[in-house]
Amino acid sequence: MTASLLKTQAMTHLHRKDVESLLGRPTGYYNYDTNPAYVVGPATVESIYAHGYLLVLETSKNDGKVKRVFFVPEVQ
Question: What pTM value is reported for the model?
């Protein structure tokens, strides 16, 4: 479902509030409270953050817009 969303919806340049309207409240944050993160995928995937992939939306501290979207661990 997440891969489908990323293929159909350009997440970069959205404002952080738009992302939260689309995906709901973040599961947590990545490094800073300006980078919303969501745990997605199977619980068989492990990282230092959660069981499952962490979908990270790195946002600009200046204007709140998404600069980069990535998964931890990286999706192969």
Answer: 0.83
Task: Indicate the Cα dihedral angle 27, 30, 59, 10, nearest 10°.
Answer: -60
DSSP 17-73: HHHHHHH-S-SEEESEEEEEEEEES-TT-B-SS-BSEEEEEEE-TTT-BEEEEEEES
Query: Is 60 exceeded by the pLDDT of residue 8?
Result: no
- Run of H or E including 3: helix 2-8
DSSP-assigned beta bridge partners for residue 65: 15
In the predicted structure, residue 7 carries a pLDDT above the cut 70: no
How big is the CA angle at 75 (ends 57 and 58), to the nearest 5 degrees?
A: 10
